Amino acid sequence: MPELGKYAVEVLSAYAVSLVILAGLVLLTLRRGRAARAALARAEAETKGTVDAV
């Protein structure tokens, strides 16, 4: 680990905050993806019984 001197607390806390934000973004992305897949599955299920007009 590099020698951070008197700025160790600030640098390490910035790293910690960055990691927490990144983890939150990953979790939010996964959650939104799951919701989008569920909405798509519902929409496809609704149209299964209909005949395509094309």
Tags for this model:
1 helix; 0% strand; 54 residues; mainly alpha
Give the number of DSSP strands.
Answer: 0
Radius of gyration: 23 Å
Q: Name the overall outline.
A: rod-shaped
Share of residues in helices: over 70%
Computed structural class: mainly alpha
Low-confidence stretches: none
Percent of residues in beta strands: under 5%
The overall pLDDT, averaged over residues, is 90
How far apart the termini lie comes to 63 Å
Give the count of helical stretches: 1
The major sheet is characterized as:
none
**H/E topology pattern:** H
Number of domains: 1
Structure notes:
- The chain crosses the membrane at residues 12-30.
- Its main location: membrane.
- The chain is mainly α.
- The chain has one domain.
- Helices cover 74% and strands 0% of the residues.
- The chain has one helix and no strands.
- It has one helix at 8-47.
- The longest helix is centred in the middle third of the chain and has 40 residues, at 8-47.
- The chain is rod-shaped and about 70 Å long.
Question: How is this fold's topology laid out?
Answer:
Blueprint: H1 8-47
Task: Please sum up the structure shown.
The protein is mainly α and 54 residues long. It has one domain (4-52). The chain has one helix spanning 8-47.
